[in-house]
Amino acid sequence: MTVVRNRLALVALGVLALLVIAAVFSPLLAPDDPAKQQLLARLEPPAWEGGGSLAHPLGTDQLGRDVLSRVIYGSRVSLLVGIGAALLAGVVGAVCGLFAGFRGGWPDRVLMRFADIQLAFPSLLLALAIVGFLGSGLWNVVLVLGFTGWVAYARVVRSEVLSLRTRDYVTQARATGVTDLTIMRRHLLPNVLPHLATIATLHIAAAIVAEASLSYLGLGVPKETVTWGSMLADGQLYLGTSWWVAVFPGLALMLTSLAINITGDALRDVADPKAYRR
Predict the structure, then answer these.
(1) Residues 143, 131: contact at Cβ < 8 Å?
(2) What angle in degrees, to the nearest 10, is found between the helix axes of 150-164 and 105-119?
(3) How many CA atoms lie within 13 A of 176 on its CB side?
(4) Concatenated DSSP letters of 174-188
(5) Backbone angles phi, psi at 48, to 5 degrees
(6) Where are the transmembrane segments (predicted)?
(7) Confidence check: pLDDT of 88 > 90
(8) 125 vs 107: CA distance, rounded Å
């Protein structure tokens, strides 16, 4: 089973490619300034509806801002938060999982009990509490979502290392005087990287949804920064009359999360073909 043979995964990768292009080239692709207010054109419907115009293909919001431009610019924050949180959580989780699984003993017990304590708290509520303490801000959101997501990486890496540390090549490396740090870096880490990539892919989707939830509640990225979550919050009052204000950012959020999850499932099948055949 490969990603190339999985048509659904190819479609998901195409959606992600469009998302990356939109995020990187937002100034070139957006038809208008996402913060530009045009009160005379407020709540203008999409181009295919009566009263709409090609100047605003997806309509405008309550302040006359172009919805398409705001959706395109919102992809930048979503990708930055998702990838940043996944990288931070992946590094912290991989280091803790390698150390706990390889050394065992009291370091393993302390780290895993700390992980169990964190898992006892709902991740979104924990993120809300930390953001409320640190304050809103892009990097605070990345830090919080990275901190709340390291446990999944650590537990998976630890379980893999527990089985790998008894292999012959690890025993031989120890017998020849290779340091523990070198063994973890050269022999154990490469074997857990496929699992880390799969978890990171799924974590990116979870972080994007979490960021949108925080922004929806007004506790995420500052209000002046365009995010899909803040667009949903702004558009909820107009669902009955101007549905496009909330539907299009919600649709972008849904398609992005779905595409990332499908890609993560495909990566899991590639990393573990036996599990796919079962």
Answers:
(1) no
(2) 150
(3) 9
(4) HHTT--HHHHIIIII
(5) -85, -5
(6) 77-102, 114-133, 139-157, 192-217, 237-260
(7) yes
(8) 28
Strand intervals (E) in the chain:
none
Token pair 């990486």 is found at 153
Q: Above pLDDT 90, what percent of the chain?
A: 14
Provide the token pair at 90: 């992946």
- Return the number of other C-beta atoms located less than 10 Å from residue 183's C-beta: 19
Q: Is 209 helix (H, G, I), strand (E, B) or coil?
A: helix
> What pLDDT does 265 receive?
81
**Count of the separate structural domains present in the chain:** 1
pLDDT for 179-210, tens place per residue?
A: 878 888 888 888 888 888 888 888 898 888 88
Residue 91 lies in a domain: yes
CA distance 224 to 4: 41
Contact 70, 34 (CB under 8 A): yes
Q: Which tokens is 110 given?
A: 């302390």
Alpha-carbon torsion (91, 93, 98, 104), positive or negative: positive
The tokens for 15 are 């959606």
Residue 207, domain extent: 5-26+65-269
- Domain membership of residue 56 (yes or no) is no
Contacts of residue 99, Cβ cutoff 8 Å, sequence gap at least 6: 107, 111, 184
C-alpha–C-alpha distance, residues 82 and 208, integer Å? 5
Q: Is residue 31 part of a domain?
A: no
As given in the structure block, the two tokens for residue 80 are 């930055």
